[in-house]
Amino acid sequence: MIQRFFYAFSLLACTLLLLLIAANTTVPMPLHPAHRITLHGADFRVLSGAGEQDEESLNIGSVGDDDNAVQSIALDHVGADDFPLLRYSFANFPRTLELSLVFRCADTPKDVHAIALPRPEGGVNSYDLRTVPAWHGDILEVGFAEFPTAQSVAKGQGFHPFTLIHAELWSPSKVGAVSALLTDWFAHWPWSLRSVNALGRDIDTPRNFSLVLALAVWSFIALLLGILILGWRGRSIGIGAFACIAIAWLLLDLSWQSGLFWKLGLTRDLYAEKSWEERSRMIADAPLLEVAARVRETMRDVSPNTRVLVASDSDFEMRRLVYHLLPANVAPLALVTSILAQADTAQPTNSLPTGTVLVYYDVAASDYDAALGKLHIAGVDYAARALLETRSLRIYRIGDKP
Q1: pLDDT digits over 200-225, tens only?
Q2: Does the pLDDT value for residue 163 go beyond 50?
Q3: What is the number of other CB atoms lying within 10 angstroms of the CB of residue 274?
Q4: What torsion do the CA atoms of 43, 44, 45, 48 make, to the nearest 10 degrees?
Q5: Best CA proximity match to 378, nearest among 348, 350, 397, 347
Q6: Mind listing the pLDDT tens digit for each residue in 46-56?
Q7: What are 40's strand-pairing partners?
């Protein structure tokens, strides 16, 4: 009985020590912060969107023209090393928005730095800014930016009113470092393109210690203490190792399931009680869906088997427009021209065939000479006719006279 009690006490002590090490604390660091700077929500200036003061808090009622909301407050040259821990509190923060900290440093006052933060919920959240290289020197200004979750929430769909209650900057302390570590481990982070195969946090915000590594170390410690204190031998070591790994796996799975359940709630917030037609248009790149529809309308008299080549200054927009144009015979223009460039130029087939349709979306430089009716592509001039020319969308057909 005494051995079991000593084992439990030793495991608890090692767990606390592991938390302190994972939180990157030091022995001289005080338990509680010696200094705090409190920034009430009502003291923040609204730079984008609209807000209204409510006693000491700030109610954000709308976003700006860019679908973002930004609030900031000037600081009197606060030392980054003196106040490396951020504490922040919001109320009614919608699941459809991401939150970022924005700040300016004295050595580069014209540069605005931004770092993604865990979703503010369940009271006060913390973030350890010691992991952020840009947080250095004197800090002139800090603030928050809120915007729809990238690639998940369509423009104009994600905002609901919320309240900025307060923010705090703490001097180094063990309590602050551990609270930031627990926020990093268990707070909810928004969807990203890696969410489908990521365990836990799936964005590139700097961190001290991952939960997976911490639980692996904890399992090893629990097994080692069992061998040293409880005298596990032979079969007992196998059973103990299985139990330690199972407990760690269960804790990790519960944390992951919590994040998945929260993301499921985001999906419900967006799509519940909406028809399939409404849902199909609620995508992050809805403007590209409209561009694709306009391309189809322009090509209504063109054969369905016609090759369509797409170009854009943005690789993401080009690939998404190709996707939205499917099942047409569509491909990226850059891919086709690179294949032609590697082929034998003496062969007459190594050029774009007559009837090929070229779609240029948000391309700054024009390759079309309207006076000559020529389209210059990869060093070759093709006779072409403009089917549509607008500020952002241009469509041409090779082989047609202008």
Answers
A1: 555 666 777 888 889 999 999 999 99
A2: yes
A3: 12
A4: -150
A5: 350
A6: 998 888 888 88
A7: 166
Please give the distance of CA 249 from its chain centroid, rounded to a whole number.
Answer: 26
CB 62 within 8 A of CB 46: no
Collapsing DSSP to helix, strand or coil, 145 comes out as strand
**Partners of 90 in beta bridges:** 164
Rounded CA gap, 296 and 357, in Å?
11
Confidence of residue 344 (pLDDT cuts 50, 70, 90): low
Does residue 137 come out as left (phi exceeding 0), alpha (psi in the -120 to 50 range) or beta? left
Please give the mean pLDDT across all residues of the chain.
85
Cis peptide before 172 (omega within 30 of 0): no
Sheet holding 108-117, edge to edge: 45-48, 69-79, 138-148, 97-105, 108-117
* Strand 69-79 relative to strand 45-48, pairing: antiparallel
DSSP run (H or E) holding 244: helix 235-271
Q: Is 377 helix (H, G, I), strand (E, B) or coil?
A: strand
Coil, helix or strand for 58?
A: strand
pLDDT value for 348: 47
Select the more confidently predicted residue: 113 or 200.
Answer: 113
Specify the pairing of strand 162-170 against strand 57-62. antiparallel
- Per-residue pLDDT at 400: 60
Angle formed at CA 202 by CA 196 and CA 206, multiple of 5 degrees: 170
Q: What are phi and psi of 364, to 5 degrees?
A: -70, -45
Q: What is the mean pLDDT of residues 368-396?
A: 84
Q: How far apart are CA 105 and CA 112, in angstroms?
A: 8
Mean pLDDT in residue range 339-355:
66
Coil, strand or helix at 56:
coil
CA distance 208 to 228: 30
* Residue 162 bridge partners (DSSP): 60
Tokens of 193: 């393109």
pLDDT per residue over 309-331, tens digit each? 999 888 888 998 999 898 888 99
Contact yes or no for 33/163 (Cβ under 8 A): no
Q: In this structure, are residues 306 and 387 in contact, taking their beta carbons and an 8 Å threshold? A: no
CB atoms under 10 Å from CB of 200, counted, come to: 16
Of 209, 179, 15, residue with least CA distance to 84: 179
Segment among 149-158, 227-236, 385-394 with least mean pLDDT = 149-158
